[in-house]
Amino acid sequence: MTSQSVPIETQATAAYGDTSFSSQYPASRSGPPNLPAEESCGHNFQPFNVPFRKFKITYLPQTPLELFQLFIPSSYVYRWIDYTNSWVSHLIENGVVDNWDRPLEQTSRILDWDGLSSSQVYIWLGMLIYLGIHRENAIEDHWNTPRPGVHSPFHLITKFMPLRKFELITCYLRLFDYSKYLHIDLNDIPKVFQVVDEWSNHIQCMSALLFQPGSSVAVDECMIRYTGRSKDTTLVRNKPTPLGFKVWVIAQEGFFINWMWYIKGSQVSLYGVERQRRKGGKGKNSLDDFELLSNTQRVVVVLCDRLPIQTYHVFLDNLFSSTALFALLRKHSYGATGTARPNCGIRKDLQLAKLQDKSGKSGFIFNEFRVITSPDNLVGS
Fold first, then answer.
1. Which residues are 281's β-sheet partners?
2. How far is CA 222 from CA 30, 78, 307, in A?
3. With DSSP H G I counted as helix, E B as strand and the rest as coil, what are the percentages for the chain, rounded to 5?
4. One Pfam family this chain carries (predicted)?
5. Which residues partner with 250 through β-bridges?
6. Cβ contacts of residue 254 below 8 Å, gap of 6+?
7. Is 207 helix (H, G, I), strand (E, B) or coil?
8. What is the DSSP string of 57-94?
9. Could you tell me which residue, 267 or 232, shows the higher pLDDT?
10. What pTM, to 2 d.p., does this model score?
11. What are the residue boundaries of the structural domains of the chain, listed by start?
12. pLDDT category, 26, cuts 50, 70, 90?
C-alpha cells in the first residue's frame, strides 16, 4: 500500500473523543443487570437494518519499524529515558532500591545502572514481545547457551542485550515523572492507570488513524496479565488470564479499537455521556434511559459513541445484555445482538424457559426459534 503522510493526532482524537476517566457519579451501579421479567409484549417487531461495511486500513507506513514507532514514537521514548534516569538517581540518593524502601546495599543491582538510550528501549520492547511468543520456564533461560547433548533453542535476540541489562530496564523503566505521583488522593483514579493513560490514549489515536471500523463490532471485558503487587488487579475465574488489570474493549476481528480501564469498587462515572447525547441520538428521554443502566451497561454506550459516526451492529455477551440497553443503543443508531441472563428484563415465559433449561425442561425442541417483541416493538427476545 502506498505510504502517506501521517495526519495530525488531533484529527484522531476529534474522531474518537477519547478519554478514559471522568467525574464522580455516586448513584451508579455495576455488574450485570438484575431486572424483573417483562409482563407484556408487542406484536409488530420493527427490524433495525445495519448495512454491511468491511473495515478499511486507511494508512500504512513503508516499513514495520515505522509502524511500530507510530505507536511508540521517539518523543515518548526520550521522555521515558529522562523519567527513568531521574527515578534511579532519586532511589540511590535516598539509599533505597525501590518504592518499597528496601535499603540500598553494596551488592544492589541498581548500582550497575549506567544510563539508558533510545535504541536500548526499543530493543527491550522488542525482546518483551519476543519473550511473550517464545516461552521458556524462566526468563533467564532465554540467555542459556545450548549444551552438547541437550536439545534446547538458541535465542538470537538475546545477543542484542545482556540479561543483567534487560532485568535492570524491566525493574526501573518509568513512563512517568515520579515526582508528580508521590502523593495520590484516595479519591483519584488509581495511580497505575494514571501513569500509562497518556500512552494508552496515544495508541488509541494511532489506531483511529490506521483503522476505519466496519459495521460489526464487539464489546467485552479483557484482561492484561499482571502478577505483581497491586491492589487494583482483578481476579476473574475461568479466564485464560484470570489475574490482572481488567479493561473494557470495543474491537473488530481481533483489532482493539478503543478501551477503558475497569476500576475495581469505584463510583467513577463514564465520561461525558450523562451530560450530553451523541449527535444523531434520537428521543427526548435518551439521557434518562442512560441513567437507568448500570455502569457495566453504560460502558457499551460510551465505547460505541467513541467510534466514527456510522451505524453499527454491536455484539455482546450476557454480562451487558438487557432490553433497556438494547433500546437505548437503537436510539443511538446501533443495532445489537447478545446472549441474555434470566434476570435481564426479558419476557416472563422466556425467563422461566431459561431457568428450566438447566434441567432440560425448557419446553423448546431442537433448533426451535421463537421471537417475543418488547412492548415498544423495538427489541426482540
1. none
2. 16, 30, 19
3. 35, 15, 50
4. DDE_Tnp_1_7
5. 219, 258
6. none
7. helix
8. E----SSHHHHHHHHS-HHHHHHHHHHHHHHHHHHHHT
9. 232
10. 0.81
11. 9-54+213-357, 64-181
12. very low
